[in-house]
Amino acid sequence: MLNTSRKFLAVGLAAVAMSLASNPSVAQQVVKIGVSAPLTGAGAANGKDIENGVRLAIEEANAQRIKLGGEEVRFELNSVNDQGDPRIGVQVAQKLVDEGVVAVVGYYNSGVALPASPIFAKAGIPLIDPAATNPAITRQGLKNVFRIIATDAQNSGNAGKYAVTVTKAQRIAVMDDRTAFGQGAADEFKKAVVAAGGHIVASEYTNDKAVEFNAQLTNIKAANADLLFFAGLDNQAALLTRRMRQLGMRTQFVGSGGIADSIFIGVAGSAAEGAMAWEYGRPVESLPKGKVFAEKFKKRFGADTLTYAPFAYDCAWVAINAMKQANSAKPEVFMPALRTTQYEGITGEIAFDSYGDLKHPTSTLYQVKGAKWVPVTTISAE
């Protein structure tokens, strides 16, 4: 009887061993990639766009059954809702650190990125930025911060120079939403206008929750401005444009980044026609991998991308490729590979300068024609 029991035990152990050998997932190393974005509130649609860009990259990476250090890894998405609030952004940044993420893709709001990024620096975790564009984010002396999108100095700088030298605007008005992004973009635009010999005839501001702009538009109309540059986000920009048309203003509307999307056209309605906006990078559909990415995204999520999903997707792959190059998911091991990245992404060539910004950023001017955003010109940042 004892011998029979031993035989059964031996057979059972052999079966377990075979099961482990034939099921690699048992031995998988879990590698967590964090995402911080607003998943509720006014920025939720763009926050979800960022999250889904990372999700698609992670799903594709897992399908490749990537090995690091000889062990198959499974990447996991760890998302937090920063609500576009700096205070909450800091809290959930620490939550990501405590939960063991090895890299973070964020942020949508510059005002959240600025106070939250030092949390990751202290923990030695790389932060790869797909959307927050205030130049100060990469000028804090932090060696863990990377950005794969043009900064406000580059994007809004292009906008200011173009308004004077190409559009030939004579009387330029500027308005911002007083966020770190909006105020920063407006300041860079103004500097570029002045440097190009242009004239600012009105400077107004609102807040990012406002829906009524009569006082500001009355002043801009009285100044006889022929162009208004608005530094803010899509929904508010659309409300502003609609009100301009209701007031009979013929002033050319030009927006900062984060405006040339379907949300703007849906909210502005017929008032959107002719509006212009400067966006980061080249038109995705014009890039070699852009059309395929857009089709994959829509098939997976049942919706078109907004602005930032391609950038977020590239952020995730830049991190994953650095891990593959270093053969490790330890941030202290793969961070050097991240700094020397040479990657052809959905959004174009990605390589970082000494600050962690793109070496060769570009901006594209779009205009609404026939209820669609149509590229006008693409300019490389100086």
Automatic annotation (TrEMBL):
<dbReference type="Pfam" id="PF13458">
    <property type="entry name" value="Peripla_BP_6"/>
</dbReference>
<feature type="signal peptide">
    <location>
        <begin position="1"/>
        <end position="27"/>
    </location>
</feature>
<protein>
    <submittedName>
        <fullName>Amino acid ABC transporter substrate-binding protein</fullName>
    </submittedName>
</protein>
<dbReference type="InterPro" id="IPR028081">
    <property type="entry name" value="Leu-bd"/>
</dbReference>
<dbReference type="InterPro" id="IPR028082">
    <property type="entry name" value="Peripla_BP_I"/>
</dbReference>
<keyword id="KW-0732">Signal</keyword>
<comment type="similarity">
    <text>Belongs to the leucine-binding protein family.</text>
</comment>
<feature type="domain" description="Leucine-binding protein">
    <location>
        <begin position="31"/>
        <end position="369"/>
    </location>
</feature>
